[in-house]
Amino acid sequence: MNRIAEKKAFIMDMDGVIYHGNRLLPGAVEFTRWLTENGKRFLFLTNSSERSPRELCEKLKRLGIEVGRSISTPARWQRRSSSPARKRAAPCT
Fold it and tell me: Which of 3, 8, 62, 77 is least surrounded by Cβ atoms within 10 Å, i.e. has the fewest?
């Protein structure tokens, strides 16, 4: 656990790591709570383009995870790479 605790930031896939379909995976709530309580930066990442970041934030909330953080999706990657101005992933609001 010390090696994990030393990390300052985390990037996590969503489906299969935090949830599977509409079922939250064991330890996901506790881990995201630990990240928040310990001031760790984190980003949820998905290669699925089926849902918008806002929809994914709402899904996490329904499953019991309040992130108040960002989610990045393929559409955002494409916009970001084609734009001269660097954009951040949208906040989960």
Answer: 3
